[in-house]
Amino acid sequence: MELEDESYDFVVVANRLPVDSVTEADGTKGWKLSPGGLVTALEPVMRSADGAWIGWPGAADTHVDPFEHDGITMVPVSLDQTEVERYYEGFSNDTLWPLYHDVIAQPSYHREWWDSYVSVNRRFADRAASLASHGAIVWVHDYQLQLVPGMLREKRPDLTIGFFNHIPFPAYGLYSQLPWRRQILTGLLGADVIGFQRTADAGNFARAVRRLFGYETRGSSIRVPLEDGAERRSRHSRTVVARAFPISIDSASFADLAARPDVVERARQIREDLGNPKTILFGVDRLDYTKGIRHRLKAYAELLQDGRLDASETTLIQVASPSRERVAAYMELRDEIEMTVGRINGDYGSIGSAPVHYLHHGYPREEMVALYLASDVMLVTALRDGMNLVAKEYVASRIDGDGVLILSEFAGASDDLRQALLINPHDIQGVKEAIVTAVEMEPRDRKRRMRALRRKVIENDVAKWSATFLEELRRASHAGTAADTP
Length: 486
Ligand code: GDG
Known about the structure:
- This protein has helices at residues 37-48, 81-100, 111-131, 148-155, 172-175, 181-188, 199-213, 251-259, 261-273, 293-306, 328-348, 365-374, 389-397, 428-440, 443-459, 462-484; strands at residues 8-16, 19-23, 29-33, 51-56, 67-69, 72-76, 132-141, 160-164, 193-196, 217-218, 221-225, 237-244, 279-286, 314-321, 356-359, 377-380, 404-408, 421-423.
- The chain is an alpha/beta fold.
- A 10-stranded mixed beta sheet has the order 5-6-4-1-7-8-9-12-11-10, with helices on both faces.
- A hairpin with a 5-residue loop joins strand 2 (19-23) and strand 3.
- The longest helix is centred in the C-terminal third of the chain and has 23 residues, at 462-484.
- The relative contact order is 0.10.
- It binds GDP-alpha-D-glucose.
- Residues 166-167, 247, 284, 286, 319, 321, 362-365, 368, 385-390, 393 line the site of GDP-alpha-D-glucose.
């Protein structure tokens, strides 16, 4: 039987497939699993539950048949060039992304982008509807696919549908700008369980539902009235659960890398290559305006200017991995950051020493962990961030129990990682004080804080996150069956 004709008990639907296309030395094309927490968390579930993953392969106009990779059935959904521009770069990354991140950048509202978003969501939903077995669990991910739960429920009321939003959900005052605010909520409410990163996000969502639809919400439950139709049986409403499931990382895999002698040696090498400075500060982010890279650079530059940090004994490594390079706001941000870095190095550098080492590259996981180990202070200064996994990766990698985490209170991770030095990145003076506190912190204090942080990140890893979400989903599916019984 062709993979195409099979049906699956567990279906993941995400914008991207968890694989990247690679071309071998001999010219043959293949796929490589892209390392990410989500795949790691879902791999075991996919294998044991006869699972399929529906997603875009990442390049326009690629038509690929379903295939098997590392025991997971991959089901590619193709997007043409116009859809990449309108659904993905446009509506997803230039409308929803800035709107959901507190309008740090101005969202663009274009009706043709919306039309494309609807038709691409329809394609993903149709694919899931045709692949899911009777009563299957379908787990839809993220802001690119918010209409899928509703579209799927219409076609397949037998399914149990989960949705997880990886980014924040904005306050109603901002959300209400969206010309299609009702359609998006209807799409999401097609799910049985809607997961958010923070309790505050779930609260914003429930409020939007109350304001726009007047539905009753109690705790994490939302009562959604049923329209006439097949679903209307004994009750006239169904219950949707909307609550926080804070995502995490595969903590053990970071600890394993941090224990590898070659990674430890690489960390030492990095420090040596930088001239063994007294303090290394480190930031790593996708080059995105939500991450507060400019605020971080401003605080650092002022500390050099004030003489509170000495450029001859301090280095900031900033890895900014390339991201969304065809979206105008990202091009402008890159120019601004690179100009600022140039200024700082020009003003405070000397022959053989640059106060900022700026790297516009992506690096292998091993190199990331070596950088985490090499740095004394980790800077996470996001202006708004669903969770921020970098903060958790830093903590998981510090098996030596050392290092200081500076963490924005606007990142979801700050709900849990209270022993970090918490900052408001808009308060440049506050960021400066936190950096000085981190640099001067006594080893005992550093270790005490890191011990507490590590406990959190080790206890709450990504396997626990997915297990908790799926448990809630199964509970919802049983409750749904009960409601159907007259
Ligand atoms: C979204 C939400 C939420 C980055 N550069 C390199 C590299 N990375 C890896 C990091 C980390 C991941 O990318 C970034 O995750 P974050 O959570 O920090 O941020 P987003 O990309 O914005 O993710 C976010 C997340 O979804 C999950 O729900 O936490 O709030 O915005 O894993 O390590 N990895 C490698 N080389 C790089 O150069 N190998």
